[in-house]
Amino acid sequence: MATTQLATTNGNPVTLSDEMIDAFREQFRGEMLTPGDAGYDDSRRLWNGMHDRKPSLIARCTGTADVVAAVNLARENDLLLSVRGGGHNVAGFGAADDGLMIDLSPMRGVVVDPARKVVRAQGGCQWGDVDRETQLHAMVTPGGEISTTGIGGYTLSGGMGLLHRKWGLACDNLVSVEIVTASGDVLTASEAENPDLFWAVRGGGGNFGVVTTFEYRLHQFGPEAFAAAVIYLGDNAEKILNAWWEFARHEPDEVTGQIILWTVPDIPEIPAEHHGKPGIFVLGMYAGDPEEGKRVLQPLREIEEPLLDLSEAAPYVMHQSGFDEFFPEGSLYYWKSLTTDALSDEINQVILRQFAERPSMGTPIVIRHLGGAMGRVPEDATAYGNRSAEYNISIDGRWEDPAESERNIAWVRKAWDELNQLAGGGVYLNFAGFAEDANAVVRAGHQENYERLREVKRHYDPTNLFRMNANIRP
Ligand SMILES: Cc1cc2nc3c(=O)[nH]c(=O)nc-3n(C[C@H](O)[C@H](O)[C@H](O)COP(=O)(O)OP(=O)(O)OC[C@H]3O[C@@H](n4cnc5c(N)ncnc54)[C@H](O)[C@@H]3O)c2cc1C
Hints:
Blueprint: E1 4-7, E2 13-16, H1 18-27, E3 31-33, H2 40-44, E4 57-60, H3 64-77, E5 81-84, E6 100-103, E7 110-113, E8 118-122, H4 127-134, E9 139-140, H5 151-156, H6 164-167, E10 174-180, E11 186-190, H7 195-201, E12 210-217, E13 219-220, E14 224-233, H8 237-250, E15 255-263, E16 278-286, H9 290-297, E17 308-309, E18 312-315, H10 316-321, E19 332-340, H11 345-357, E20 365-369, H12 373-376, E21 391-399, H13 405-422, H14 438-446, H15 450-460
Parallel strand pairs: 4-6, 5-6
Antiparallel strand pairs: 1-2, 3-4, 7-8, 8-12, 9-13, 10-11, 10-12, 14-16, 14-17, 14-18, 15-16, 15-20, 19-21, 20-21
């Protein structure tokens, strides 16, 4: 490898000599990639096509010792450091131009301990990796709705999916983490060990170190699960939204549901005349007996005559990957969300108007029902903020033509601003635009937990080595 120039945290370049690189190589077992190497472009690629970032050095870690070596190299040379888990972050935090990227994607091992009802998953896992192993034992830990989403970024900022009303957020199910902190120490954080750090990683994002192993609690569930998945034509969007809202207000914790105002997909099961028209997706997972789930979710399937009803009892892993194809890697995305304690006719009217005005038919507006188990965790028990919110409204801009980026981003911001004035001012940090105005966004994400998070950050990362995230300034 030639002498390598990298960016430092203050923007100035630094040159790592061949001797330094050789010394690093002695500590590091994984691949080290620089621009032009085979595999470099695959490793740096992020899921959101808006970001085309070129790190100067990619350290593809094979285990905790590799992570320690890479963190030490970054700290000792004040390098601009990014950590890539699944690479799904919409803001593109997984890569930084000219920086050092710690790529965790070779670390995807999963071990289930059915007797203790826990699963240990390495920091580069995707949800599909975890689900397929836990489901062998008919057990689950609540994860993301798209199987390729990284467990890392997802869990560290909360993690809501199709089971959070029954068993809480992904971060609520953490038993412990193994984490490499800025000093290069390998710590365990749990209720018993380093509890301040454990509190902070449950919602505080990647601010405190690189999590090399996540240990999650498991619940008996699956392999068969009943989920409602109904597509209605958007002509009666208001009626369908109101019917879903009425159902959501009374649903048991076993149901975690959402409504998506979107576009009728171009699939053979739906007559071609409807393709591309506004469509409403009503989704709900039942965390219990599939027969009971079918009965409980039935009202969601008969709001009116559906265009397509895909509701069924099927393997949980199938439900968890059923929407993968609708979120292709490389499309252009800009997502912003807000939380609200309640929906209202006024909020719903704004959602419906914004839905009608969206510049791209690829863009959904997603309303997720929160509450249940995730809402009963005390606000200060973990770093995750906005526990009391009953709904998350996410405006998920998606388009294909780079020339349309400005228009789409401007629309998402405008829709968000308008809704935010009616809602409670809370933000979910996994859907937070590009974290522009980072201070305000991060405060809105953590609310009253923010000051305590700063204290923990000052303790574990006083120089802000881990800054490519929803950043808490020490
Ligand atoms: C298609 C799609 C579907 C999604 N669905 C959901 C959903 O159902 N529910 C939901 O809540 N969110 C969802 N998200 C949002 C998702 O939770 C965030 O994008 C999250 O950041 C993804 O994590 P990642 O590891 O893939 O991301 P990355 O881009 O790899 O990382 C994101 C951030 O986390 C840090 N990080 C990642 N791994 C680690 C680690 N092991 N240790 C320390 N820091 C780490 C990174 O440094 C970075 O700051 C979805 C996103 C996409 C693109």
